[in-house]
Write a structure and sequence with these properties.
75% helix; single chain; A middle domain of Talin 1; 370 residues
């Protein structure tokens, strides 16, 4: 038992959040030199990874659908914390930060994680196999959420510019929560088998000895420890984001990049754990799990972040710009069409994976050079 406790205390997922909290307490309210900012940024990235790890442990213990909701809420807290922190300190130039971050998350998940998973799966087995019913439903939900929250504001006329009126924003927030909640219920209950891995012949593949598609849950003591560390990690992420936010904005300006590129940086940071987890699943021939992670992250980014930002806008000064521009609308439409053509057969080669990755590259390039 003593050896187990020592192992737990020296694990990086335990040490990083604790160190990040100590650094946060020591640096709060002070002008930080570049070297300290670099350390804080490294701890911020580590705290994000640790937070998602502990959320996954707790989610696995409590079971579905509460586990999926907990994991999504944890990631959303990180994303919303970063967005609100930068919006408070950035003034007028961050009015579109929520839109830029959510759109970047959609492009990274639906093209980057999606394409990488298909590419790895196809390289291993020549053809990546997944369930088109579950994946198609997830893609349809993402497309609907993205259209309601990011496309419609561009064409509404109640307010000048690409923004919702208060009533429209409330409707979009409620609709997003309803759609996300409905998807979670379908994924974890009524049609759970649509989201389990499949063999090359198309039959459902059991992931563990029990045949339920899940590893055995952790012990209660482990779950409680992870819950405590999850709270510590989330506080560390939000607090350290506040410390490094001036450096992020200064770095973007110094590199002559558009302000919208800050949203890309936030999305890349938040989605790093999901990218690593999806890659590992694809290498183990669990492409369906990888696609669940990709599209589930996109759904949570829109379905939970937009309502949270809508609530936060009550206290934030200035308008909340959500509508996409012409270039972004084109990329989103192309992503949706390409995704449909990829998902319908239930099988994909390296070509489909490459197409999605090229779309991600186009998005990043055009975000840096609009």
């Amino acid at each position: 038992m003593a050896a187990l406790i020592r192992s737990r205390l020296t694990d990086w997922t335990t040490l990083v959040p604790l160190i990040a909290i100590l650094i946060l307490a020591a640096c709060w309210g002070r002008e930080l030199p570049a070297a300290v900012i670099a350390v804080v940024a490294a701890l911020l990235a580590g705290a994000v990874l640790a937070a998602v790890h502990h959320a996954e442990v707790v989610a696995h213990k409590v079971g579905e659908p509460f586990g999926s909701l907990l994991l999504a809420v944890a990631v959303t807290v990180i994303e919303v914390g970063l967005i609100v922190t930068l919006m408070i300190s950035g003034g007028e130039k961050t009015q579109s930060l929520a839109r830029d971050t959510v759109f970047a998350a959609v492009m990274i998940t639906c093209n980057g994680i999606f394409g990488l998973s298909l590419l790895i799966g196809a390289l291993r087995r020549r053809v990546a196999v997944f369930n088109p019913e579950g994946t198609g439903g997830a893609l349809a939900t993402v497309a609907t959420l993205a259209t309601l929250s990011l496309v419609v504001p561009t064409f509404t006329t109640s307010r000048p510019g690409p923004q919702f009126s208060p009533a429209q924003l409330t409707f979009a927030a409620v609709a997003s929560l309803a759609l996300y909640g409905l998807f979670v219920l379908v994924q974890t209950g009524r049609h759970r088998d649509y989201f389990l891995p499949v063999t090359q012949e198309g039959s459902v593949l059991a992931v563990d000895a029990d045949g339920d598609g899940h590893a055995d849950p952790p012990a209660a003591r482990t779950a409680w420890a992870s819950l405590a560390l999850l709270i510590v990690a989330l506080v560390a992420v939000v607090g350290n984001a506040k410390l490094v936010s001036p450096a992020i904005e200064s770095g973007v300006s110094a590199a002559n990049l558009p302000q919208a590129f800050v949203g890309v940086i936030i999305a890349l940071l938040v989605l790093l754990p999901e990218t690593l987890a999806a890659s590992r699943a694809a290498r183990r021939d669990r492409v369906q799990i990888s696609l669940n992670l990709a599209l589930g992250s996109a759904m949570a980014s829109i379905g939970l972040t937009i309502p949270a930002i809508a609530l936060a806008s009550i206290w934030l000064e200035g308008p909340l710009v959500l509508g996409l521009g012409g270039t972004q609308l084109t990329l989103l439409a192309l992503t949706a069409v390409t995704g449909v053509l990829t998902v319908v057969p239930g099988r994909a080669t390296v070509l489909q994976g490459g197409v999605h990755l090229v779309l991600l590259a186009a998005f990043v390039f055009l975000a840096a050079s609009p």
